[in-house]
Design brief:
The chain is an alpha+beta fold and 433 residues long. It is 34% helix and 21% strand. Bound molecules: 2-acetamido-2-deoxy-beta-D-glucopyranose (3 copies) and zinc ion. GO terms for molecular function: cysteine-type deubiquitinase activity; metal ion binding. Belongs to the peptidase C19 family. USP2 subfamily.
Length: 433
């Protein structure tokens, strides 16, 4: 439902590439000692060792020599080189400017649709164009996904022609991180977005070694104070540009029906998956948000244990938004089951393009107003379908349709449709950021 960025796929992401490198080197060394004279093999061994040792640093060096694209100043020392170019990449002023299509590599429209939505995410685009991600890579050996993502974004914004480009290098990298995207099967765009953001985040996490954070009891604190502490604890482990942009904090309150005791929990979220309310008429996005935050009664087998009664009690549960993210991703649950997709709800959900006011969902009545800038559109059924995207160009403010390699202008009045699937909103005003 919402994303607790726990460890669900951490280990999965951090594939054992280093281990493999070292092992391979070891095997080579052994065979060298077996078959050759000692002195030349020692020399080779030394050479090999210096390569291996460099693995952590080496990746940075390697990356840089493979594409000298300029870096910003405050790089970690191991990433510094004498001949740094500091020039930023500027969007091509005449031509393409983000209006470049992506070739379909065989059922990859889900990927193309999400990539175009992200390419039109103003701050993420600039992060890539300015090569700021290089500063955050922290000399990780494993940063190829971010590199390819940035390269792709740069190409989309600086390409001299509008000719569609192939995202195959990027696809190779995302497959390494998430083997489920190997091959050419139709995939779910929202799941893909989660994997991608998580993968990018891991590579540019400002925290290189996640500390063990002790479990602390914040129950004596006020809700706001508790929320702040929980958020800071989260940042001690997960802190990146991706988090800066996409992650918010959700409050869930559990109230005991016997004694009225209310316990609160604060969790980070990367997107909100909204149920679509069943209704004969049209449904609005606000209706979906109301359904998502509706008070839920937990009774029978679901009864939680009340901390004050020290017994299982009937409780009511309710969500509210404690911290609004800069970019709010709303996923409309059109498919009844995430994996075994059996049915698709084609309910028309109306959503505002401008001034989506979320104050009523805020924990403390703070102001939060969002504007829409991108939509991933799913046409078709659960079995076969096609994804497109429509995005507002962050430079010109004009709307465009992205249908794989085709990009065409559209009017904002065409944006609403019964096929909107993932909505990208950006925060305009919030009294507390
Ligand atoms: C979204 O899908 C609907 C249904 O197929 C289609 O009519 C509409 O043109 C699509 N919108 C865009 C902008 O691709
Ligand atoms: C996308 O392009 C294909 C042609 O390749 C076309 O059949 C389809 O209708 C287009 N979809 C949308 C939503 O524009
Ligand atoms: C945002 O805040 C500014 C200054 O407080 C105000 O002028 C503007 O109308 C607000 N915009 C929205 C969309 O609320
Ligand atoms: Zn109680």
């Amino acid at each position: 439902m919402l994303r607790h960025t726990g460890e669900f796929d951490r280990t999965f992401w951090q594939s054992g590439q280093n281990v493999l490198q070292v092992k391979t080197a070891g095997v080579i060394l052994l065979s060298l000692f077996n078959y050759y004279t000692v002195i030349p093999s020692l020399i080779i061994a030394l050479l090999l060792f210096s390569c291996c040792f460099g693995a952590a640093d080496g990746a940075c060096l390697f990356r840089r020599s493979s594409e000298q694209q300029g870096l910003s100043s405050n790089l970690p020392t191991c990433c510094l080189e004498k001949s740094e170019q500091t020039a930023h990449i500027h969007p091509n002023s005449k031509n393409a400017q983000g209006l470049v299509g992506l070739r379909n590599l065989g059922n990859t429209c889900f990927m193309n649709s999400i990539l175009q939505c992200l390419s039109n995410t103003h701050d993420l685009r600039d992060y890539c164009l300015r090569n700021t991600h290089r500063t955050d890579l922290n000399c990780r050996a494993n940063a190829a996904l971010m590199e390819e993502f940035a390269k792709l974004t740069q190409t989309l914004w600086t390409s001299a022609s509008n000719e569609a480009i192939s995202p195959s290098d990027f696809k190779t990298q995302i497959q390494k991180y998430a083997p489920r995207f190997v091959g050419y099967n139709q995939q779910d765009a929202q799941e893909f977005l989660r994997f991608l953001l998580d993968g990018l985040h891991n590579e540019v996490n400002r925290v290189s070694i996640r500390p063990r954070v002790p479990v602390e009891d914040f129950d004596h604190l006020s809700d706001d104070e508790k929320a702040k502490r929980m958020w800071n604890k989260y940042l001690e482990r997960e802190d990146s540009k991706v988090v800066d942009l996409f992650v918010g904090q959700l409050k869930s309150s559990l109230t005991c029906s016997e004694c009225g005791f209310c316990s609160t929990v604060f969790d980070p979220f990367w997107d909100l998956s909204l149920p679509i309310s069943k209704s004969s008429g049209d449904v609005s996005l606000i209706d979906c948000l109301r359904l998502f935050t509706k008070e839920d009664v937990l009774d029978g087998n679901e009864k939680p244990t009340c901390q004050r009664c020290k017994a299982r009690r009937k409780c009511t549960k309710k969500f509210s938004i404690q911290k609004f993210p800069k970019v709010l991703v709303l996923h409309l649950k059109r498919f009844s089951e995430a994996r075994i997709k059996t049915a698709k709800l084609c309910t028309f959900v109306s959503f505002p393009i401008k001034e989506l006011d979320l104050r009523e969902f805020a924990s403390d009545n703070m102001n939060a107003i969002y504007n829409l800038y991108a939509v991933s559109n799913h046409t078709g059924t659960t079995l076969g379908g096609h994804y497109t995207a429509y995005c507002r160009n962050p430079s010109t403010g004009e709307w465009y349709t992205y249908n794989d390699s085709r990009v065409s202008p559209m009017s904002s009045s065409q944006v609403r449709s019964s096929d909107a699937y993932v909505l990208f909103y950006e925060l305009t005003n919030s009294s507390r950021m």
